[in-house]
Amino acid sequence: MTRAGDIEHTAAGWLVRREQPDWSGSDEAALAKWLDESMAHKAAFWRLEIGWEASERLAATRTPVLQRPRPRPRPMVYAMAVAASLLLVCLLGAGALWVRHRQSPELVQAATSVGALKRVDLVDGSRITLNTGSAVRASVAGGDRQVWLDRGEAFFDVSHDQRRPFTVFAGDRKVTVLGTRFSIRRDGDTTIVTVEHGRVRVEDSAASDDQRAAVISAGDVAVARGTSILLAKRSDQWVEDSLSWREGILTFDQVTLSDAAREFNRYNKRQIRIADPRTGAIRIGGSFVARDIDAFARLLRTGFGLRVAVDGDTITIIS
Amino acid sequence: MVDDNALRAWFAKEVLPFERDLMGFIARHSRERDDVIDIRQESYERALTGARAGLPASARRYVFTVARNVLIDRARRARVVSFEQIADLDSILVDDGTRSPDHQAEARDELRRALAGLEQLPPRCREVVRLRRVEGLSIRETAERLGVGLHTVERQLTLGLRALVDYMHGGELRIDRSPQRKPHEQRAKR
């Protein structure tokens, strides 16, 4: 093999091993050392890493057929089996929760009301920022660090501890932290994971036998719904903007008025209603205080010349 | 001094999108496929080292100039190369970089390209890459499912990753042979 071939082979080996579950902090240090040895190493490694990341979109091609190669039982039997296992899961879940409640003082529960923002410090040094109308439970007892995002949205700043994996369960999704800072939002049956720093692994909660995962890194957004995960690459600025809620700010970049109103409605008791779909399609941009829905409505009136009517807790954008 | 994050971002956004063109350029002026990869690697290494002092205004022009210098240095070192070839290289005009990478098209292309790249891999290698990339299986899980050793999986994955990345950066080295062929390019065909 040529010199370039050797370097590339070594770089590919690093890349492959870095994605494995047993990748450790000392592996990470060894990789950093190898990269620092020469610009040739960085050139080869970055080239492979960038190309490999670009192929990440393949994860979106998963189909249910690929995921469940086993023959399906007949529908009725299947439904009963599902019902039975759900019941079992519920019982086990309730039992486990009850046991945790009784035994571990490290079980933390926190929730926010509409418009509120709350910071939760865990005993391991990790911090959770809860957005409006959200709830989490966290258990940092023993060898595991587990968090359940029961509803809403939360940002996680995870303290590094390679011996204790940090896992977030969001509905039927499981997000395992390989890096440090990311947010998860639940919206109906959709889970959206945005990574600010480091890398996380997104998979089905139930995936134990037949594990399928997408590893996403800083700047990536994963939108998981049903059996599919869509990945998108975003700019650092986009990620930063989408996380501005941590300062109580909503940042929009050319989103439709409907989408912006929906965002505001998450943070306020007073709700914006848009009477005319054509008005809802207007695109707007800018930064706003999430809880000041009135200021937003005033801006629509003065800035866009829209007619706004206020009736109790409902703000109607007429046209 | 440009830090590593900025350098890597520049490499990803401004340099790698031109890899296909760069490979075509190098292939037209060298003989062996192995040489092409060596020259590409050396060009990237020199380009990154140089860019650390400050990112150049036109990445395309800069990288092609670096590659041209690598080609000239190599031709001078290689004793069997005719003077004619060096003269040829000296007269290469690096194009002016008016084209800029179409980032949006690149992004749209990625999935299509990744799928096509996957198809190009030999069957076993393809399955290993698919299980990792599409299904998200670890090496251990892949080994268990396919009933082969960990070492085999790791090796296949490493090879598959390299081949797929080649594909992601501009296709299976389909060398673009433009009309104005020169004698030594004919030799480079193999």
Short account of what is shown:
The complex is a heterodimer of chains A (319) and B (190). Chain A is built from 9 helices and 19 strands.
Task: Give me the side-by-side strand order of the main sheet of chain A.
Answer: 1-4-5-7-8-11-12
Low-confidence stretches of chain B: 96-100, 173-190
Portion of residues in helices of chain B?
55-70%
Helix-strand makeup class of chain B: mainly alpha
Count of individual beta strands of chain A = 19
Number of helices of chain B: 10
How far apart are the first and last residues' alpha carbons of chain B, in Å? 42 Å
Count of alpha and pi helical runs of chain A: 9
> So what's the overall shape of chain A?
globular
Secondary-structure content class of chain A: alpha+beta
Rounded Rg of chain A: 23 Å
Q: What would you call the shape of chain B?
A: elongated
Strand content of chain B: under 5%
Mean pLDDT reading of chain A: 79
Largest sheet of chain B: none
Quick check: average pLDDT of chain B?
A: 76
Task: Explain this structure.
The complex is a heterodimer of chains A (319) and B (190). With 319 residues, chain A is of the alpha+beta class. Chain A is 35% helix and 33% strand. Chain A has helices at residues 3-18, 25-37, 39-54, 64-67, 75-103, 236-242, 257-267, 277-280, 293-304, and strands spanning 107-111, 118-121, 127-130, 135-139, 145-151, 153-157, 166-170, 173-177, 181-187, 190-197, 199-204, 213-217, 220-225, 228-233, 249-256, 271-274, 283-289, 308-311, 314-317. A 7-stranded mixed sheet of chain A has the order 1-4-5-7-8-11-12, with no helix packed on it. Chain A has a 7-stranded antiparallel sheet with strand order 2-3-6-9-10-13-14, covered by helices on one side. Mean pLDDT of chain A is 79; it is low at 63-78 and 88-105. With 190 residues, chain B is mostly helical. Among the domains of chain B are: 4-78; 117-172, Orthogonal Bundle (Arc Repressor Mutant, subunit A). Chain B contains 10 helices and no strands. Chain B has helices spanning 4-15, 19-28, 33-51, 59-77, 83-90, 103-120, 123-133, 139-146, 150-168, 183-188. In chain B, helix 2 (19-28) packs across helix 3 (33-51), helix 4 (59-77) runs antiparallel to helix 5 (83-90) and helix 6 (103-120) packs across helix 9. Chain B is elongated, with a radius of gyration of 19 Å. The model of chain B is unreliable at 96-100 and 173-190 (pLDDT under 50).
